[in-house]
Amino acid sequence: MNGYARLEATRTASNGRWRQTTVAGAEWRLDANRGDGRRFDPLRPPRQNYGVGDRPDDFAAVRAQTQLASYFEHRVRGLIAGRALDASAGARLDAIDPGSAGGSALVSPRVLASWRVAPSLALRVAGGTTAKAPTISQRYPLPRYFDLVSFNYYPPTPPERLVMFTTRVVDTRPARLAATRASKAEAGVDWSWRGATGTATWFAERTLGAFGSTRVPVGIEVPVLRAAAFPAGAPPVLDPTPVRVDSFVGLYDAPRASRRIDTRGVELTADVPEWAAARTSLSLGGGWFSTRATDDDIEIPVEQFLSGTVQPARVGVYAGGRGSQGDRLLTTLRLIHRAPDAGLAATLIVQTTWWDSDRPLGRIDGIPVGYVDRSGTITPLTREQASSPEFVPLRRQVTPLEGRWERRPALHLVNLRLTKTLPGHSQMAVFANNAFAHLPLYQRQRQAGFERRNQPQFFGVEFLTTLGRR
Length: 470
Prior knowledge:
The protein is mainly beta. Helix content is 2%, strand content 61%. The protein has helices at residues 136-139, 383-386; strands spanning 2-15, 18-31, 52-53, 65-80, 83-96, 104-118, 121-132, 144-153, 162-170, 180-193, 196-224, 227-229, 237-238, 244-275, 280-295, 314-317, 322-339, 344-361, 370-373, 378-380, 406-408, 411-422, 426-433, 441-443, 450-452, 458-465. It has a 16-stranded antiparallel β-sheet that branches. The chain has a three-stranded antiparallel β-sheet with strand order 3-8-9, with no helix packed on it. The protein has a three-stranded antiparallel β-sheet with strand order 16-19-20, with no helix packed on it. The longest helix has 4 residues, at 136-139.
């Protein structure tokens, strides 16, 4: 169930050559889940994996999430040195779940300005921040159940059968999950000349606290029971004193706001008017983009607790900040040829990736910053301790190739489309993506193997019709 309401007021005033507009408003949002939730027959529960159990859960037990916001913006339009100027500045206050333990309040300012310095040239700058609230499923994840066998007796006679479980319930809800913050700044140029138009934009974006999921270990003690007696026609009588107590490491996924994404780049567009003699128009777009994506949360290869027949006594903990950096330079050329008398239009799209490279980020020397034992306790280590012979088995095997750049050669992709106008306000289109079935292979540098660069060839026919009279 979702609810939304907004109240906004606008006031406009003119003063000579300047026109000013003020906008103020408030918003209310409600997100609630009143569904029955997870349901199944308790006598036939879902199959378990690695001791992970399941229970019916009522979504209606999760509280609704409320968001309140107020915003203010002031816009100005006028002339500076005889040239048009448009500018605006404002701010927004978001209150997420006000009054709750996990609530938060954020202020997001923004500013924008555009100045036409010449009849065919305009400059623009902009900057601001935004906030994104976590979803209900991220703030209130369902609990995780671990059902581990303490005793299992399965004779041929059904009344004599008995199985005993030790159950551990883990509350996976985070103590606090703040909203994701994103900031962006950009500067651009818009131009026109003899019917042709174009833009060039530089931008830089930063996202902090992006949501993700981290696999977390939890230590569970499992008492192993034995039967004191086996009465005929009845389940065994168990000895209340365990034979031993085993340790088991369970894993569950917990929401985290630890992701960070930094992107910067340049985007270019150019549109050339139709060449009347050839009835062909041209459009060119492209850009260079560089992205760094990292995770500030510590890294625990918890899958090691599940590998092999015997769980390890401890697993290494490695520093956060691991991620990747990727750079890409690409252009897209679009040619459109029209034949109005025949009702035909042909489109040729050539996309070229001139530069495509990536590399891993973060510490890749394999030295741990701590370890987690079978009780789920994390013990930190200094770099000197981690380098000692005692903890050498926790060091990751790292090859010199793991830090190398993958620099792929240029790649071309050609798409074709032919559209025919039909009677009755209908159209038929024949298209072929990757028309020449160009599927080059790239031999990876950091690890053995190849990767296919282009998408497989895809082609087909489309029909479009408009019903009703015009």
